[in-house]
Amino acid sequence: MKANVKWVDNAMFLGESGSGHSVVMDGPESLGGRNMGIRPMEMLLIGMGGCASFDVMSILKKSRQDVTACSAKLDAERADAVPAVFTTINIHFIVTGNKLKEKQVKRAVELSAEKYCSASIMLGKGGVSITHSFEVLEGNSVDQ
User: Fold this and answer.
1) What is the Cα–Cα distance from 89 to 68, expressed in whole angstroms?
2) What crossing angle do the helices spanning 40-62 and 118-125 adopt, rounded to 10°?
3) How many angstroms separate the CA atoms of 64 and 78, rounded?
4) Average pLDDT in the 90-113 region?
5) Which of 15, 44, 14, 12 is nearest to 28 (CA)?
6) Which fold has domain 1-38?
7) What pairs with residue 77 in β-bridges?
């Protein structure tokens, strides 16, 4: 895997993935940025959420669950000192579908946390306290 990050100006950078996609990162105005892009630590948190969500959905599809929507809400705390690393992260899955089996959703979340999600496992080994929770809703997709 490869990536490239180019400085644009002030506190703005352009991140380019090896697969050809780009994202703008920028700092807050208080640190010389213009607040025109995502913060790097926010991207790291979103990346973990995407990794875990990918796993959960893949496992639920394989277990033939009729999922109509899935969202992951992440809540993180950072250290007050430099480096301001993540100290705790909770990822809460809201899985909506038709006749979903709570046991299957629970197992999908556990497998992601314990075996498959490279991002959360890596952060956990780095000292971040990571917790997982979920809820199951019946029906079609709703604004989650």
Assistant:
1) 26
2) 130
3) 38
4) 97
5) 12
6) N-terminal domain of TfIIb (2.20.25)
7) 88
| Domains 1-38 and 40-138 equal at CATH topology level | no
Does residue 144 surpass a pLDDT of 80? no
Residue bearing tokens 């038709």: 98
3-state secondary structure of 91: strand
Q: How far is CA 35 from the centre of its chain?
A: 21
Sheet containing strand 129-138, strands side by side: 66-78, 86-98, 129-138
Domain borders along the chain are 1-38, 40-138
Q: What is the pTM of this model?
A: 0.91
Do residues 112 and 55 touch, judged by C-beta distance below 8 A? yes
Could you please state the CATH topology (level 3) that the domain comprising 40-138 is classified under.
Answer: GMP Synthetase; Chain A, domain 3 (3.30.300)
Provide the pLDDT confidence category of residue 83 given band limits of 50, 70 and 90: very high
Q: What is the dihedral of CA 91, 97, 102, 106, to 10 degrees?
A: -30
The separation between the first and the last C-alpha atoms of the chain, rounded to the nearest angstrom, is 32
